[in-house]
Structures are given as structure tokens and as C-alpha cells.
Automatic annotation (TrEMBL):
<feature type="domain" description="Globin">
    <location>
        <begin position="1"/>
        <end position="138"/>
    </location>
</feature>
<dbReference type="InterPro" id="IPR000971">
    <property type="entry name" value="Globin"/>
</dbReference>
<feature type="active site" description="Charge relay system">
    <location>
        <position position="95"/>
    </location>
</feature>
<comment type="similarity">
    <text>In the C-terminal section; belongs to the flavoprotein pyridine nucleotide cytochrome reductase family.</text>
</comment>
<keyword id="KW-0274">FAD</keyword>
<dbReference type="Pfam" id="PF00042">
    <property type="entry name" value="Globin"/>
</dbReference>
<keyword id="KW-0216">Detoxification</keyword>
<feature type="site" description="Influences the redox potential of the prosthetic heme and FAD groups">
    <location>
        <position position="84"/>
    </location>
</feature>
<dbReference type="InterPro" id="IPR023950">
    <property type="entry name" value="Hmp"/>
</dbReference>
<keyword id="KW-0520">NAD</keyword>
<dbReference type="InterPro" id="IPR001433">
    <property type="entry name" value="OxRdtase_FAD/NAD-bd"/>
</dbReference>
<feature type="binding site">
    <location>
        <position position="190"/>
    </location>
    <ligand>
        <name>FAD</name>
    </ligand>
</feature>
<keyword id="KW-0349">Heme</keyword>
<feature type="domain" description="FAD-binding FR-type">
    <location>
        <begin position="152"/>
        <end position="260"/>
    </location>
</feature>
<feature type="site" description="Involved in heme-bound ligand stabilization and O-O bond activation">
    <location>
        <position position="29"/>
    </location>
</feature>
<dbReference type="InterPro" id="IPR008333">
    <property type="entry name" value="Cbr1-like_FAD-bd_dom"/>
</dbReference>
<keyword id="KW-0408">Iron</keyword>
Length: 390
């Protein structure tokens, strides 16, 4: 049981955590994967190589320590992480493993400061937080299992369609092998997909946004081929090797970023592959006959303009507004997205804004919106990969 003494002790260790920085969580992951290599089949090992996961975990641990007396401040983060955990099929027993290695990491890295009192306090704090996640995730598992077309754990799906959407993005329509219905989702959510890439050491689980509206029969996800230093193992496998008729394992839809039905006008803002969850919202808004919708999109050039024809057809049909920026050349506008160029065309004082794209892009858009006095509660965003606060 977490008590006031435990809380005070945990708070007293904040300077220790901050001095250790992400090195603490790097040690934690190295330790855990060394002792429990089976967890490499759950965690994204590319994020381990880039260091993104270590930084994200450190920020989460530090935020918990700083807000341990005000957990309401962490509600949105807990919800976001709980959804992500269910797409990895994380269960209660995994928390026991993680907790053990977290405590042992603190013992190994701060042996002098890690007194029995500190160990007791951090053990109680971890168990308290873990139970919050376990309870919320079990609610999500049961909710999806009991819904029409729902299921628990993995379910086999067959690739029914594979279609390029732009230079780097390809869509996959996936239908259940068992021929049954599939559970609906909220526009903006994602699926967890499990595959075993050729040449890969581990089973890999990734999350990809659903890019069409729910239909009860199949799912469409749209995947960007990740290149560069840390070449996307799963994205390249999906692009190069997965063909019509092949099967993959899916976990039910998840995610706390989704369209929330209101009477307000809607502005959809995305860049690059960030168009994928936005596209699901666009289709759903069209189906629901939403009147006041604006669509803003940015990418490098026409070849990378994802869903260009599909989006144009929807927007023309509905008479909505659309504005595009190409970084390398002229579209409606050239360069980075500048909301000042279209401010007079947007319902800034009343709209809800849904944003998805690279973190730097979203930070820029949020800053611009705040400069136009758009309240934070009307700004909604999705970060691909480990969570980042804007």
C-alpha cells in the first residue's frame, strides 16, 4: 500500500533520477532483455537502437515521481500508454518482470542511495501505478472482446488488397481468416500487427493507423516505408514481401487519439504519413454529412502526397476546404505549413483541430494555433512511436 511516507521518499529521489537521466532506463532495458529475452518479441527493438524508448520511459518515470501526489495530471498519459500496451497484448504478468528489473536497476546504479527505505517506497509506488495500468488495460481487453466482432489476443487476417498511395506509403486491406465480423473503431485509432520478418531475430509488433472508416468487415492500414540509418524492419517487410493472400496477426483497434463528435467545425491537419489517421476521420466525417471541415496537408512534393486523389474526390463532393504545402515546390503554397496564409479561411475561434505528423511539424502547428488564441482543449494530436509531449 502506497502511503505518505513512501510518497515523500519517492519525491526525495527526483534529483537522483534527473542526474542519472536516460542512462537509467538504458540500463534497465539492457538488464531486462538480458534476463528476459522473450520480451524482445513484444518491445520495438528499433526504438531501443535509436534510444527513443529509453528517453520516453525516463520521462514517464520522472513525471510519475514529480506528480505522485497529483496523479490526475497523468491521466491522459496513462490512457495513451494503456491503449498502446493493449496493442502489444501486454498482460499483468509482464508488470511483475518490469517491476523487478526497475528495482534492480535502481539498486545497481545508485547503490549508496538505494536504502531499504527507498527500495520499499519505490516498490510500493511501482506496484500502485502498475495496478492502475493493469486495471485499465483489462477494461479495454474486455470491452473489445465483448463488442460485436471483437476478440482477445491475436487474430489471423489475410491481405485482401495492397495499393500504393504515394511514393513511400502503401495501403493494406485486411480481412479475418475466420470470415467473421470485425469490431468497429473510432476514426483515428490504430491496429497492432504482429509479423515475423524474413531475416529478423524476433517476432515484431507494430502499430499502424486505420486509414478508412469502420465497416464491420475488414480494416485498412497504410504503412510508410521507413528508410535511413534505422531502416524500418517491419515496414520494408510489409512493402517488399507481404502479398495478396498472405496472413498476419492483428490485435484489436486501440488509441486515445480519435475524432470526438461535437457540433464544432473540424480542421484536419497532417504531414507525410500523418495523413493516415486523419484519412479515417475524413471518410467518417463525409459519411456523417459533417458540414464545416477544412483539410490541411504538407509533404515534400507531389509524389509523396498520400491519398491525393482519394482526398480530393471526398472534398470536392462535400464542398469542403483544402490547402496543401509542398516543401520542395509549389502546391497551394510552398515551404513549411504557415497557418497565417489561410487564417482568414479557417474557423479558428470555434473549430476542433486534429493534428498528426512529425513531432517538429506538430510542435510548429500547435505553436501557431496558440498564437491565434486557439485553446489547448480544442487541439488534439497523435505521436507515432514512444509518446512525446508537445
Amino acid at each position: 500500500m502506497l502511503n505518505n511516507q513512501h510518497i515523500e521518499v519517492v519525491k526525495s529521489t527526483i534529483p537522483l533520477l534527473e542526474s542519472a537521466g536516460p542512462a537509467l532506463t538504458q540500463h534497465f532495458y539492457q538488464r531486462m532483455f538480458s534476463h528476459n529475452p522473450e520480451l524482445k518479441d513484444i518491445f520495438n527493438m528499433t526504438h531501443q537502437k535509436t534510444g527513443r524508448q529509453s528517453v520516453a520511459l525516463f520521462e514517464a518515470v520522472a513525471a510519475y515521481a514529480k506528480n505522485i501526489e497529483n496523479l490526475e495530471a497523468l491521466t491522459s498519459a496513462v490512457e495513451r500508454i494503456a491503449h498502446k500496451h493493449t496493442s502489444f497484448n501486454i498482460k499483468a504478468e509482464h508488470y511483475q518482470i518490469v517491476g523487478h528489473h526497475l528495482i534492480e536497476t535502481l539498486r545497481e546504479l545508485a547503490s549508496d542511495a538505494f536504502t531499504p527505505e527507498v527500495e520499499e517506497a519505490w516498490t510500493a509506488a511501482y506496484l500502485f501505478l502498475a495496478q492502475i495500468f493493469i486495471d485499465r488495460e483489462e477494461e479495454l481487453y474486455q470491452e473489445r472482446k465483448q463488442a460485436m466482432g471483437g476478440w482477445e489476443n491475436g487474430r489471423e487476417f489475410r491481405v485482401a488488397e495492397k495499393k500504393p498511395e504515394s511514393q513511400y506509403v502503401t495501403s493494406f486491406v485486411l480481412e479475418p481468416v475466420d470470415g467473421g465480423q470485425v469490431v468497429d473503431y473510432r476514426p483515428g485509432q490504430y491496429l497492432g500487427i504482429e509479423v515475423k520478418p524474413t531475416g529478423g531475430e524476433n517476432v515484431e509488433i507494430r502499430q499502424y493507423s486505420l486509414s478508412h472508416m469502420p465497416n464491420g468487415q475488414n480494416y485498412r492500414i497504410s504503412i510508410k516505408r521507413e528508410a535511413g540509418e534505422h531502416k524500418g524492419l517491419v515496414s520494408n517487410f510489409m512493402h517488399d514481401e507481404v502479398e495478396l493472400g498472405d496472413t498476419v496477426k492483428l490485435y484489436p483497434p486501440a488509441g486515445d487519439f480519435y475524432y470526438q463528435e461535437k457540433h464544432n467545425p473540424v480542421v484536419l491537419v497532417s504531414a507525410g504519413v500523418g495523413a493516415t489517421p486523419i484519412q479515417s476521420m475524413l471518410h467518417s466525417l463525409a459519411h456523417d454529412e459533417k458540414q464545416d471541415v477544412s483539410y490541411l496537408y504538407a509533404c515534400n512534393n507531389p509524389q509523396q502526397h498520400t491519398f491525393k486523389q482519394e482526398t480530393a474526390a471526398l472534398i470536392d463532393q462535400k464542398g469542403w476546404k483544402q490547402f496543401a504545402w509542398y516543401l520542395d515546390e509549389q502546391a497551394d503554397f510552398a515551404g513549411n505549413m504557415d497557418l497565417g496564409l489561410v487564417a482568414d479561411e479557417l474557423p479558428l475561434s470555434e473549430a476542433d483541430f486534429y493534428i498528426c505528423g512529425p513531432v517538429a511539424f506538430m510542435e510548429s502547428v500547435v505553436k501557431q494555433l496558440e498564437g491565434h488564441n486557439v485553446a489547448r482543449e480544442r487541439i488534439h494530436y497523435e505521436v507515432f512511436g514512444p509518446h512525446t509531449y508537445l
